[in-house]
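Proteins fold reproducibly. Next comes a concrete instance:

***
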Amino acid sequence: MAVNQAPEYGCEAANKQAKRCWLSLGLSHSVELTDPKRYRPTVDTLQRYYSQYPYVVGITEHQRPPFLVQSVQQVPACPTDCPSETFNDKSLKIEWQVIGKYSQTGQEVVFRARHIILALGRSHDKIKLQVETKSGSECPLISSLEELRTLTYNHPLLIVGSGLDAADKILFCRRNNISVIHVYRKTFEAASELYAPMDPLTYPEYIWIRDLILSKHMEEDSWTYTAFDSSLVSYLDVGHQVWVKGIDNCHFFTVLACGVLPCLGYSPHVLEDFCGLSVEDLVMDSSTYESVRYPRLFVLGSLSGDRFVRFAKGGVISAVSNILSFENSQKS
């Protein structure tokens, strides 16, 4: 059984009103690239792909209406079975119990299944910087590219963080000739590793971001980029002043750009609930998404350290397809 909270397949990516940033709609920037060598599917093509994919892999009969998951736990398949303290033992008959309700009707439902897939969804909550702010400070804090487009640029833009949302904003600033001050906690080398798996021919602009981070500073015509690694925003002052604490304490006149918070939504402590499982413990089989250490546990997305959209593999839908194929082969 596959349950989802979104009203249609593909979740945000299938929603034409979705925020068109890289993580929400992975190929959105292709429509702005005119070089034939950089061709990738358009936004509309991608949306059609997501909407048709479940039918192609044959899992639609297992799909249920939009469903809000409220809790996830392991239970014995039969009352006489051993509880879940040692659920990585394949000999035990353990099932997953999912409690929630249908989003449209509010009807409460309990599902039980042998397998479970944890797929990291996206939150629409903006990141809130936990920093001191002087009374009267009006430093704009923006999140989406749409907000960025409507801003009046009287100051350089301070971009906080080294993720793909930050990369999108840097690309936007370069196209619109807005100088960038880039601040993030990681070292230069660690920040650039996020982009290392990307194919240079498929994602040339993100490879450019990786090289930009490693260069630390760039001046191109009237556009400038300056990065500060191992640094934190420590204080917001009046007049768009932002104090940054790092190797060298300094302050800038600027506005702020941040991303959004990724989360499971239904249980922020879900990993800890699984026998103290942490993100570092998650080692997944690259072809099936199943945990190497914990059988019947499937983990996708940022939880498994993979922040890239799985266009070829299909993410959750493909994982469900793999499970169904395995179960059918066992029956035959």
Observations:
- The first helix runs from residue 43 to 57.
- The first strand starts at residue 67 and ends at 76.
